[in-house]
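User: I'm putting together a teaching handout on how multi-component assemblies are represented. Below are the sequence lines for each component of a complex, exactly as they appear in our records. Could you produce the 3D structure of the whole assembly as structure tokens, so the students can see both representations side by side? Please keep the chain order the same as the input.
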Amino acid sequence: MSLEIVGLTKTFGATRAVDGVSLSVPRGEFFTLLGPSGCGKTTLLRLVAGIYPANTGAVRLNGRDITHTPMHRRNLAMVFQNYALFPHLNAFDNVAFGLRSRRLPRNEINARVKDALALVKLDALADRFPAQLSGGQQQRVALARALVVRPDLLLFDEPLSNLDARLRDEMRFEIRELQRRIGITTVLVTHDIAEAFTMSDRMAVMQAGKVVQIGRANEIYRAPANRFVANFVGPINELALSRIEMVGSRRRALAAGDLSVWLPDHINASGRDDISLVLRPEALRVATGEIGTDNCYQAEVEDVVYLGGNSECRVRVGGIRLSALLPSAAAARLRRGEQVSVGWNANDGVVIGGE
Amino acid sequence: MTGLSSVANNRAIAPWLFSGPLLLVMGVGFIWPLVQVLANSFHPNTPQGIDFTQWTIDNYARLVDPFYGEILVRTLRISFLVTAITAALAYPVALFITRLPPRAQSLVILAYISPWLVNTVVKALGWTLLLRTNGVVNTVLRQFDVITVPLKLMINEIGVIIALVPGHFMFVLLPLWAALSGLDPALSWAAGTLGARPSAVFWRVVVPLTLPAFIAGLVINFIMNMTAFAIPMFLGGTRTMVASMLAYQVNLISLDWPLGGALALALLASTLAFVWVGQRAALLMIAGHRLPP
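Assistant: Of course. Below is the structure of the complete assembly, with chains in the same order as your input.
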């Protein structure tokens, strides 16, 4: 393991900003801390960086305990949300800062800074001051400044949130590609699901200072650990369940709207009360004819919204409304007020319970 | 849009409209008298008053006299020492204040401004109560047997310096505190994570970025020291005469306005020269790097 965090806690006054977090990141992995603002993800990152001291718990980097190591001796690097470039230094001197702190010989500094600037395609702008660079260029300088010191760990604090949408998409892939090529262990903080999904190998979803789920993007998306994760990583249909019963080897339940539904084979809901069935919109099928799913109901089309490649189709079934995501070609055949079939395969649903 | 607002919208006129009233006051109340002082200084003084028919540089020649030279050097020395002591104390104090909770910060800043809430003569008299031979400081020190002979803390340059340092400290502290408060903490964190120890973060990031405010404060501080009157008067006495006291005597006691004019202009020139040299030296010394554009 490259980075290990064990029972880390940080309080600000009465607030537990980070509450007993444990996780580990293997060498070379791109790991993301994902969560809404105020969930403690940035505080956790700052604890790892050594910006704040931790109350309890430990941080280990490549086997050495750095919990109480001052930040200048942790040998990590951080890219900040606003880049935090030194406004009084040009791009070259910004990148050279970490090497000069390490008192490397002048010719080695020059060579490594040039390499780092070339890596982010900024070698032509080495003399520019931060104020003379665009947002994307500043971002690249910040990246070069972090990479040039060859840190054991690279930390990103919402690095793309200040860029416009197009550039952001570009930088996502560029950073990901660079990280793979160098093979550096990386921890990124973001509230942006798309960013987390496109860039990271694994991610931890955080809520109120705690890690609620760790996994790959598809695990988080398809099998959210609780209602919060399910809601956070994408739109859902949620049906409250009651009266779960075994029918042979399968489970059946009564869902909101008086629907009798077949449940997925694997249920990891912890508590017995407040259990719901979660359905992603793309798991639902809607058609005028036969749809051949485990669960199938008569419904009425309420609205069809064209979204480009896909369309969102809202249907009313029993007393409830379901939202389905269909290919636009299929959705085009549906008319408002039309009677249709709506359904899904039992194993495309996820049963969640508690918070 | 009509009348005043349309005039104000005219890009050429608007700036003058807004700065005009103050420019007028400065012109009539400061620039014109200064021109008169300049003119006076080139005419001889006679028992009948200033002889405007004659032109002379005698008034400036008289300043070469060691008596005046000594006063000018003393004024510069005291002002420089006060500014130097202030410069040494300003960063530690300002950094300390920025790390306090917001409410405490305003209280401490108020404490540093408080000397200016007191009349300068009252303030100078207050200092004499503390610093005179049987004043508070000497009494306490003798009570605890720290000293046997009272320290001579006033009617000398030490007394003037002791009173001027806290009196003019806020001129450096306020701009520096504002600059430090405005500094993005992420800059220090970035430097720290890049391997800079706290002292390196201070010298390589914090100081260069707050230097303009610091130097501006030092310039104001130095000028205030050069022109201080009441404190040198009460705590220095006539034996440690400074330029402002001399100007007072020449202009208002001897009523020799031509000499007073020459003196005032020499003081102005030496202050500006000293400020200019000091500013250049400080920039070169502390910031041995390129400055932001």
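A couple of points students might notice: Chain A has a mean pLDDT of 91. Residues 90 and 128 of chain A are 5 Å apart (CA to CA).
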